[in-house]
Design brief:
- The chain has a 6-stranded antiparallel beta barrel with strand order 1-2-5-4-3-6. The protein has a 5-stranded parallel sheet with strand order 9-8-7-10-11, with helices on both faces.
- It contains 5 helices and 11 strands; from the N terminus they run E-E-E-E-E-H-E-E-H-E-E-H-E-H-E-H.
- It is about 20% helix and about 35% strand.
Length: about 250
């Protein structure tokens, strides 16, 4: 059973037109494990007095001394409980989180790196880039809905960063996958890390596993959302897909 932490909103900052950063704090975090950047927590969002839903969020930053964790939220209006809460919450409001869950970092021993995803994965991509070896080389390819969503990223000099602007959610990750396919494949063994929309993840699996011959244990692929579906529907589709494809 994951540990539960009752936290308070310390600050809420608009990072870009479609992303918001929220710092949560509380004495409960005294028992939170150290160095949890890139791990995740499940945030409990009340729907009414009796029901709630949970959503998973990457820990963008963790300051154990100050008892703080930072979570970045994609702002897509009031369409979902997480985005609605993030854009309407105020300093001092309480929220419950559970975790932390396992970190999902690229293997630092790889010859080179392919780190890619869309705006939903940007917090995890950012932490991955910050924790790569100084001599790391490769590519970071990131799809955003607006050019103003591009952020200044801290990355090794050998990592080439490409931004793909795609405002059409119905075509999510299609330009991203096309950009990845057009990359100059470097010599040596890469570690691919990809997270984004469900179909984008499936296309990347086809490309990496079946066209590039990379073992599924030597990469990270995940979907964080599914176009036209709820979070619960995405998770159900993800389970069926995993059963069918291993």
């Amino acid at each position: 059973m994951p540990a539960e932490y009752n936290l308070v909103v310390k600050s809420s900052e608009i990072l870009s037109p479609n992303m918001r950063s929220i710092v949560l704090t509380g004495e409960d975090l005294e028992t939170f494990p150290p160095d949890q950047e890139s791990g995740y927590v499940k945030v409990v969002f009340p729907l009414d007095a009796e029901t709630s839903v949970m959503r998973s969020y990457t820990i963008r930053a963790h300051n154990r001394d100050l008892h703080e964790i930072t979570l970045d939220f994609v702002d897509h209006g009031d369409a979902g409980p997480a985005s609605k809460w993030a854009r309407n919450t105020s300093v001092g409001e309480t929220i419950t989180v559970r975790g932390p869950g396992e970190k999902k970092l690229a293997d630092p021993q790889a010859d080179w790196f392919l780190i890619a995803g869309d705006l939903s994965a940007l917090p995890a991509i950012t932490v991955n880039l910050e924790q790569l070896p100084e001599d790391a080389r490769g590519y970071a390819v990131i799809e955003v809905p607006d050019s103003a969503d591009q952020q200044a990223l801290q990355a090794p000099a050998g990592m080439e960063i490409q931004w793909v602007v795609n405002p059409d959610h119905s075509q999510a990750n299609i330009p991203l996958v096309q950009a990845i396919r057009s990359l100059n494949w470097l010599p040596g063994t890469p570690y691919p890390w990809f997270a984004g929309e469900f179909e984008g993840m499936r296309q990347m699996r086809q490309f990496l596993r079946h066209e590039k011959g990379i073992d599924k244990k030597a990469m990270y692929l995940s979907c964080y959302w599914k176009y036209g579906d709820t979070d619960e529907g995405m998770k159900a589709a993800k389970r069926l897909d995993a059963q069918a494809n291993g």
